[in-house]
């Protein structure tokens, strides 16, 4: 069996994930645009459906890749004279993997979770909620809702207004991207951990992989400056 051909096919399959990721990024930005321009809630909700469809595609692709890899690994372990039915073997493994699928898989997709988090932040800042809009009120955690004027736009590192804010997925604090990355790189060279620069935060191991762009906060800052 020409395994180099199989490896090439697997690599091509994995590259398809980049298209799904790009689609999810575009859907997220579109949803934030809709909230910022005060479009109907129905339009915004339609983007959540799009994200779930992308999440399903991502799960299906990952399942296929996993079944593919398991099939190849099993064949490599077999004796050379034993040539199994690859298509049948692949289908058996894929069916076994898919049997464990659940709807919760889609909502635990990292990009979907990021989408929902950013959407909630945007709604807190850009939605004018009426007394009758109970559904929207329920979606917003009132105990942490803040007005634009109360929002802290200042980076705890530079003490200046943030231009490219990133949020730490672990502790939830935000920093200017360039400032926190510089600290992480500097401490990494010294083989030391980075404590969250936000005063009072106990998180003592900030990693670059934990940082995600806070697009919602950036839009609020840009909107206020306009």
TrEMBL record:
Instruction: List, for all copies, the residue spans of the domain called SP-RING-type.
Output: 140-226
Q: What is its main location?
A: nucleus
What molecular function terms (GO) are annotated for this protein?
Answer: ligase activity; SUMO ligase activity; ubiquitin-protein transferase activity; zinc ion binding
Presence of keyword NADP = no
Q: Which SUPFAM superfamilies match?
A: RING/U-box
Q: Subcellular location, in the record's words?
A: Nucleus
Keyword GTP-binding included in the entry's annotation = no
Q: List the CDD domains hit by this protein, alphabetically.
A: SPL-RING_NSE2
* GO-annotated biological processes: double-strand break repair via homologous recombination; protein sumoylation; protein ubiquitination
Q: In which pathway does it act?
A: Protein modification; protein sumoylation
InterPro entries according to UniProt = Nse2(Mms21) (IPR026846), Ubox_domain (IPR003613), Znf_MIZ (IPR004181), Znf_RING/FYVE/PHD (IPR013083)
Q: Which UniProt keywords apply?
A: Ligase, Metal-binding, Nucleus, Transferase, Ubl conjugation pathway, Zinc, Zinc-finger
Which Pfam family, just one, is annotated for this protein? zf-Nse
Gene Ontology cellular component? Answer: nucleus; Smc5-Smc6 complex
Q: Which family does it belong to?
A: Belongs to the NSE2 family.
Q: What protein name is recorded for this chain?
A: E3 SUMO-protein ligase NSE2
Q: Which organism encodes this protein?
A: Piprites chloris (Wing-barred manakin)
Q: Which gene specifies this protein's sequence? A: Nsmce2
